[in-house]
Specification:
Layout lengths: L3 E4 L5 H8 L7 H8 L1 H13 L4 E3 L7 H7 L5 H19 L5 E6 L14 H15 L5 E7 L2 H13 L4 E5 L1 E2 L2 E5 L5 H8 L6 E5 L3 H14 L3 E5 L25 H14 L3 E4 L5 H13 L3 E2 L6
Length: 304
């Protein structure tokens, strides 16, 4: 894999808000699975056409805790089943056979709020429920945007019980890229999950500059690493159970600029690259072009 990179998709929620013309809600990115699944299928397809070899289920906010707080736990199965169907239909429609579908194990209560994470036993119980509902429709599991070591360990444990290839991805403190948003060190987090037989360790939903600064730590401790950044100016305005309406996108992060960051990550040793919030199909397409022009091969996840 010396010159190989696995290209992930980008962020779903913000792009779906733009395409729908509807205001954001606390469950928007998942609720859309019931209201307009075709919109999700089309976005998956656009990411595939942009070069993504992995697309993730659109189920990020459909955790048991979030549904109980913001909607109803009765939506758990319908949302996940619709998410699996949309991803499968998009892959079939693309006629690109080496695209893989990733399940998603997100923070259980709220993004960027490590102080709200449940204890280890509750985390493991909920992640096992998430794996059980997803595993028949996916090829691998992405444990992402995790801001505490205990959530990461629980998520990876549940994923590996299903014997599915697993990537774990941490979200970092943009003021201190050596630390998770919990204040725990990235090095300690890596040490905690490496023995659990993960395929790769990445960082995500942090600023591109943060990902850049974290990459040498990742490459010094892990054989296969990667990153996928967000395009927010700041995540500070987001409250637990709130919406992304108060978050502003960076105006300087064009597809070309984002691709320059991605090329730097690849040159530093990243083998898995994609995008998170505010990073759309145009960004991924430009990353694809830039990496290929620089001599990298975009390959399937099965190459790992």
């Amino acid at each position: 894999m010396d010159n190989s990179v696995i290209l992930l998709d980008g962020g779903m929620g913000q792009e779906l808000i733009r395409r729908s013309g509807q205001p954001p809600t606390s469950l928007w990115s998942s609720r859309v699975m019931l209201d307009n699944a075709d919109l999700v299928q089309d976005l998956h397809l656009d990411f595939i056409k942009s070069g993504a070899k992995v697309i993730a289920l659109n189920n990020y906010t459909a955790t048991p805790t979030r549904l109980a707080r913001d909607a109803s736990v009765d939506l758990f199965a319908p949302i996940h089943n619709a998410a699996k169907k949309a991803a499968k239909l998009a892959r079939k429609k693309s006629r690109i056979s080496d695209v893989m579908i990733a399940g998603c194990l997100p923070p259980l209560v709220a993004s960027y709020k490590p102080e709200l994470a449940p204890d280890s036993s509750q985390c493991l119980e909920q992640y096992r429920n998430l794996v059980a509902i997803q595993k028949d429709g996916i090829d691998l599991i992405l444990c992402e945007t995790l801001a505490t070591i205990r959530e990461a360990v629980a998520a990876v444990t549940a994923a590996r019980e299903a014997d599915l290839p697993t990537i774990v991805s941490f979200t970092l403190d943009d003021e201190n890229p050596e630390k998770l948003r919990s204040g725990e060190s990235l090095s300690n987090a890596i040490d905690a999950v490496m023995p659990l037989d993960v395929k790769a360790i990445t960082v995500n939903c942090s600023m591109p500059e943060t990902v850049t600064l974290a990459m040498p730590i990742l490459t010094s401790l892990c054989p296969i690493v990667g990153g996928y950044a967000n395009g927010f100016q700041s995540i500070a305005p987001l409250d637990a159970g709130g919406t992304t309406a108060g978050l502003k996108a960076r105006i300087d992060l064009s597809p070309t600029v984002y691709a320059e960051y991605a090329l730097d990550w690849a040159n530093t040793g990243a083998k898995i690259i994609g995008g998170c919030c505010e990073v759309g199909p145009n960004h991924i397409a430009e990353v694809n072009r830039t990496l290929i022009k620089a001599g990298y091969d975009i390959v399937s996840f099965s190459s790992l």
